[in-house]
Amino acid sequence: IFAGRKEGYFYTRLGNPTQAALEREIAFLEKGESALATSSGMAAITITILTAVKAGDNLVTSNMLYGGTHLLFKQTLPNLGITVRKVDPSDPQNVAKAIDKKTKLVFIETPANPTLKIFDIAVLARVAHQRGVQLAVDNTFATPYFQRPLQLGADIVIHSATKYIGGHGDTVAGVIVGKKEFIKRARNEVNRDIGAVISPFNAWLLLRGLKTLPVRMERHSENAMKIAKYLSFHPKVNWVSYPGLRTHPQHELACRQMDGFGGMVSFEIKGGKKAGETLMNSVKLMTLAVSLGDVDTLLEHPATMTHSSYSLEELHEVGVTEGMVRLSVGLEDVNDLIDDLSQALKKI
Question: Which domain holds residue 280?
Fold first, then answer.
């Protein structure tokens, strides 16, 4: 077993039966060949990058990313000799123009955090593959219940399993799904040395979460749609971003590549940062927190919380305003959630 001539377990850093059970489940749900569970979503992203890209190479990515991913791409990867090129993937030609002979990976989030912008996975996969490059998709917001990027042409899928896969706000973990050979290298080369290992207990918590994933995602999505519609007509709200709304710029694309629209809603309050602070400090049922995908409803201020690693210029470029609020809609009674928002908005 130790020499690799026979399958088995000898040291948890390289795998254990509970972790393997989780990996089989996630790979099945994402319609992938194999999976690797990791200690966090950021670990999953880092391991993916270091497996696909070496010093002297580059990757092409979206200019709209989770703040932690943005910081990894802005600071850590350049220190390792990896160049990161950021573009707006809404126009696939932006991605095509950024790819050269040293490009090894295209990386996107869709829906994007926190703007909920939708990118065309199938088209971007064709653009990447025509140039011999792999496409990786962070599928955290949609989950495999609502979106399966591998079936649309992507090569690698990443999850912060802390969020919807776990679903209860009680574990931190990540998952990578892809071809067997890629996952083997990620496990036996990169993570062997980095040691970003998920514990057997956390793997069990995720297996527990998967049992209710369909029921939870349906309720998240149903509640989010009702709240998005409520906010759309509120006089103190400038705009609402939710893929399920017909007013969303990529609504038709979301209908094509997603089976549901998820539980994330972003909106801008009139009055900017001060109004946003008032709202977040006035809610009673909702919780001010930076995570998402929990059974409880969470809200946060991207510009000063999850995306504080962006400069003011970068925030302006990607449309993250001082008045933007990101809402992770939970499983509570939706009327209670709307009542909570209503009383908080009255204080602005």
Answer: 213-345
